[in-house]
Design brief:
about 425 residues, Growth Hormone, Chain: A, mainly alpha, globular
């Protein structure tokens, strides 16, 4: 298992170490944050929901200029500063006891997180040859899931204790984990700034790249799988099926372990735009099948039959997730100009906060109110989005070639 999770020695392995360090803290944070904000900070669930929605909306907008900053100033230094900013924002939660400061700290946290994701992608692009990036990202995703699982276990201990001190310890651990992430990133080779603005070109050129915007939008639709797993399926199990409630935790563990063990293997065949388009299309087929199987779990019958359907649906869902992840990573890098990786990754990364912001309301309304027809409609939407990714990528590739993006295929690693 170690060989599958760990990337090759050198820069890829240090990037993985940085990913692991902050994901452990994040895993504990995700488990405990809601109860911390209600029981310790004293906020209502409505205030938490509103604050986080606004924060991720701000973060999604900030990701593009912060990615562009990484292009202009160098991705390593920018990544380190944003990791430190994330640590500071998490630490600030320890001293907040009202909604206004909470909203400000949450906006800073989301902004730093979105910017850090874009800057780290630019750093990876500068240290890893194009043909190896998807494979390295698969290793990083495996490390991410391993860290989240370990952090969630630590967070579970804090929840069982249920004391203010235990919750505070989790937030301190998360802040320290980002300090460790910054320290690891600082040990990587520096990547020279590469952003070059042509005469008359806008500062944020990605905002005028319509084909890339369409690709990003389609990817955001496919990322609805994120709130599907974390919110919609747990509610579906409890409210619409006869399956036992403990299956919610079991399916989450199944997903986490599967990605940790098999993401690298699933990403191995994806090495260019053609294989990436195929991976995304096949992921749509499998995801549509999983939606149908999840829908069947609500049919009248015994609890074991419902549980079996949910497990099969979850297996199909995680296979689709791993294929879609590998394909989208390759697409996002291959379509981005080499000198604008940061801002393009920042823009592509907006799909994550969009899915997290709009997905919960959309999916709960669609699935819990409509039931089985809602699952079938969702299957159709995801299938259509995965199919449309093919022509959208070809359009973006043609537009990029016409615009002189040939430099994006360079294999030289730009290290100063």
């Amino acid at each position: 298992m170690t060989l599958r999770i760990l990337p090759p020695p050198g820069a890829p392995r240090r990037l993985a170490a940085a990913q692991l360090s902050n994901s452990v803290g994040d895993g504990a944070y995700y488990v405990c944050s809601a109860l911390y904000f209600t029981r310790v900070v004293g906020l209502s669930p409505a205030q938490i929901g509103l604050g986080l929605t606004l924060a991720w909306a701000v973060g999604s907008v900030a990701g593009v200029p912060l990615g562009a900053l990484a292009d202009r100033r160098g991705p390593r230094g920018t990544s380190v500063l944003l990791a430190l900013a994330t640590a500071a924002s998490v630490a600030s939660f320890l001293f907040i006891r009202s909604f206004g400061p909470f909203l400000l700290a949450a906006c800073l946290y989301a902004t730093a997180q979105c910017g850090l994701a874009a800057a780290r992608q630019a750093l990876l692009a500068g240290l890893v040859a194009p043909g190896q990036r998807t494979g390295v990202l698969a290793h990083l995703q495996s490390m991410l899931n391993a860290g989240l699982a370990l952090g969630a276990a630590v967070g579970g201990l804090a929840l069982s204790a249920g004391t203010e001190r235990a919750y505070l310890a989790v937030f301190v651990m998360d802040a320290v984990s980002f300090l460790a992430c910054a320290a690891v990133l600082l040990r990587l080779p520096a990547v020279a700034p590469v952003a070059v603005r042509r005469a008359g070109e806008p500062r944020l050129a990605v905002l005028r790249d319509r084909p890339y915007a369409v690709v990003t939008l389609l990817n955001a639709v496919l990322l609805l799988r994120m709130p599907l797993l974390s919110l919609a399926i747990p509610l579906w199990i409890v409210e619409r099926t006869h399956a036992p409630g403990w299956l919610v935790s079991a399916l989450f563990v199944l997903n986490t372990v599967a990605v940790m063990l098999f993401q690298v293997r699933m990403a191995r065949p994806v090495n260019d735009l053609g294989t990436a388009r195929t991976a995304v299309w096949r992921s749509g087929l499998v995801m549509a099948a999983s939606c149908v199987v999840f829908a069947l779990s609500a049919l009248p019958g015994s609890a074991p039959l419902a549980a079996a359907a949910l497990v099969v649906g979850a297996v199909l869902q995680v296979v689709a997730e791993m294929r879609q992840s590998a394909g989208s990573w390759q697409i996002s890098f291959s379509l981005a100009p080499a000198e604008k990786i940061g801002q393009y990754q920042g823009f592509f990364g907006t799909g994550v906060p969009i899915a997290r912001t709009l997905g919960p309301l959309l999916l709960t309304s669609l699935l819990l109110l409509w039931g089985i027809p809602g699952w079938l409609l969702l299957a159709g939407v995801l299938l259509a989005a995965s199919w449309a990714m093919g022509p959208a990528v070809r359009w973006a590739d043609r537009a990029g070639a016409a615009g002189g993006r040939d430099a994006r295929e360079r294999t030289a690693v730009r290290v100063s």
